Amino acid sequence: MFTKPISKERNSPFQKGFSLLEIIITTTVMSIMFGLIVFSLLRTQSRTSAQSNLDKLNSDIVAQQIKAMTGATEGRTTTDDYGIYFLSDQYVLFHGSTYNPSEPTNFTVNLPQDLEIQSTTLPGNTLIFSKLSGEIVGFSESANTITIRLINTNEQRTVTLNRYGVITSTD
């Protein structure tokens, strides 16, 4: 039996493997795709964060209105109005017919750094709910919005309330 010797040709055009150019092109394409995916995920995360904080604000608005409607005293002897005072980087939950910054029972909610209360059309940036009825004190159709801005994307959301304190839209 004759056996043919196995030859190992090093310069064969049929060598297996990738050239340096193919590796560079593939790596570049994959890097671009990875960058686009990360960018998309970060935008989604920012939007989700903004929506979560907007939901918290909506829930705090409803909670303050419920306290006013049910006559919550929170340890005081009399019922009172309840309200929210808006600043650009936070809002303050308070009781009473006016906001008093030195009141020790005020509760401050700080917004994340990438979110701000851009503007309100509320008189004095204050939303006050009347005790027992829960209606907005001094309501005006032209003064009933709170606009929040997501700083990273410059995206805005506006909360609109009706005279009864019901959130009618969140754009």
Per-chain topology:
Elements: H1 20-70, E1 82-86, E2 90-95, E3 107-110, E4 115-120, E5 126-129, E6 145-150, E7 155-161, E8 167-170
Antiparallel strand pairs: 1-2, 1-5, 2-3, 4-6, 6-7, 7-8
Key descriptive features of the protein:
four-stranded antiparallel beta sheet, alpha+beta, 30% helix, 171 residues, rod-shaped, minor pseudopilin epsh fold
Task: Give an account of the 3D structure.
The protein is α+β, with helices and mostly antiparallel strands. The chain has one domain: minor pseudopilin epsh fold. Helix content is 30%, strand content 25%. It contains one helix and eight strands, in the order αββββββββ. The chain has one helix spanning 20-70; strands at residues 82-86, 90-95, 107-110, 115-120, 126-129, 145-150, 155-161, 167-170. The strands form two sheets. It has a four-stranded antiparallel beta sheet, covered by helices on one side. A hairpin with a 4-residue loop joins strand 6 and strand 7. The longest helix is centred in the first third of the chain and has 51 residues, at 20-70. The protein is rod-shaped, with a radius of gyration of 30 Å. The termini are far apart. The mean pLDDT is 86.
